[in-house]
């Protein structure tokens, strides 16, 4: 029998032990995440983006305007031939109640009713800004706003049939020349400077409150029987004493049967009194607070 020296035997046993010892497991390094792409610099997201994009690019927007003005055209001559037909609210007609001998007319708002100002709104979105009078006046003076679909054909039809066309707008009176130039260049019938009744127009015996249009409608009522009115705001048709949801509904309640026959309402999701009513008409609130109030007003059921 072979004999091993003690040292050699210890080495063999040591190697045999190593052969069966568990190997230490090194943890797999966690994958390193790629850095997130840096967002390009630019204005913050704007709540008006979809509304302006819809106004500029949706065929449905244009079809609503064409449909509205086409329907009004189909009804216009019947209204003209009905001696008792009048589209002024009672308060505005009360100053000149008799329709006898009055010439026929139609009243239209301008902005988002006959002229498209969506490029101005698009500029605000791109710049991250908000409406301000100076930039608005500068836009108006460019006099490049395009006609709304259907508006040109309707107003020309009215003028061709002896119906006066009045534009009652809350553009300031000092924008008259630029506005008339824009209307004329777009092809709208403009009989003269009296066709435009802007904010600040003096009407004898009538005190204008804020931007209400009642005094200016009364001025037209003196000599004309108004066959139809067109606008994108309730205040284009009648005064709204309190700009709340309840006040707006109350102002329209006596005239809901006139919608689509004497009064033609056009869509404007980009701005208007409907929006300011959601934050209590308080434009002094920071933009974020106004936005939160609109979110709070959303109905989820």
Description:
- This protein has two domains: 49-268, Rossmann fold (3-Layer(aba) Sandwich); 271-301, no CATH class.
- 41% of the residues lie in helices and 11% in strands.
- The protein has helices at residues 6-20, 49-57, 59-81, 90-93, 118-127, 133-142, 151-160, 176-186, 214-221, 245-252, 273-276, 287-296; strands at residues 103-108, 115-116, 146-147, 164-172, 196-199, 224-231, 263-265.
- Mean pLDDT is 90; it is low at 1-22.
Under the CATH scheme, the architecture of the largest domain is 3-Layer(aba) Sandwich
Structural class: alpha/beta
| Estimated share of beta-strand residues | 5-15%
- Estimate the mean pLDDT confidence: 90
Please give the CATH class of the largest domain.
Alpha Beta
Low-confidence blocks of residues:
1-22
Distance between the termini: 96 Å
CATH topology of the largest domain: Rossmann fold
Shape by Cα distribution = elongated
The figure for the number of domains is: 2
- Percentage of helical residues? 40-55%
**How many helices does DSSP assign?**
12
Radius of gyration: 34 Å
Going across the major beta sheet, what is the strand order?
5-4-1-6-7
* Beta strands, count: 7
User: What's the CATH superfamily of the largest domain, by name?
Assistant: HAD superfamily/HAD-like
The largest β sheet comes out as: 5 strands, parallel
SSE string? HHHHEEHHEHEHEHEHEHH
């Amino acid at each position: 029998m072979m004999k091993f020296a003690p040292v050699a035997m210890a080495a063999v046993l040591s190697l045999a032990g190593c052969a069966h010892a568990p190997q230490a497991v090194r943890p797999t390094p966690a994958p390193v995440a790629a850095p997130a792409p840096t967002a390009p610099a630019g204005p913050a997201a704007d709540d008006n983006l979809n509304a302006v994009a819809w106004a500029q690019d949706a065929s449905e927007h244009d079809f609503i305007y064409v449909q509205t003005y086409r329907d009004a055209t189909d009804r216009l001559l019947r209204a003209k031939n009905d001696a008792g037909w009048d589209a002024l609210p009672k308060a505005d007609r009360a100053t000149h109640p008799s329709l006898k001998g009055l010439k026929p007319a139609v009243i239209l708002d301008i902005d988002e009713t006959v002229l498209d100002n969506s490029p101005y709104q698009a500029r605000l979105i791109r710049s991250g800004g908000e409406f301000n009078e100076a930039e608005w006046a500068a836009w108006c003076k460019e006099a490049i706003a395009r006609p709304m679909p259907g508006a040109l054909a309707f107003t020309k039809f009215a003028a061709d049939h002896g119906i006066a066309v009045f534009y009652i707008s809350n553009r300031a009176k000092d924008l008259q020349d630029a506005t008339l130039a824009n209307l004329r260049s777009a092809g709208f019938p403009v009989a003269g400077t009296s066709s435009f009744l802007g904010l600040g127009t003096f009407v004898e015996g009538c005190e204008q409150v804020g931007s209400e249009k009642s005094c200016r409608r009364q001025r037209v009522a003196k000599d004309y029987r108004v066959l139809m009115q067109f606008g994108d705001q309730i205040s284009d048709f009648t005064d709204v004493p309190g700009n709340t949801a309840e006040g707006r509904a109350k102002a329209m309640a006596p005239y809901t049967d006139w919608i689509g026959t004497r009064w033609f309402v056009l869509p404007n999701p980009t701005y208007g009194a409907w929006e300011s009513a959601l934050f209590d008409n308080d434009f002094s609130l920071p933009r974020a607070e106004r936005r939160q109030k609109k979110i709070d007003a959303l109905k989820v059921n």
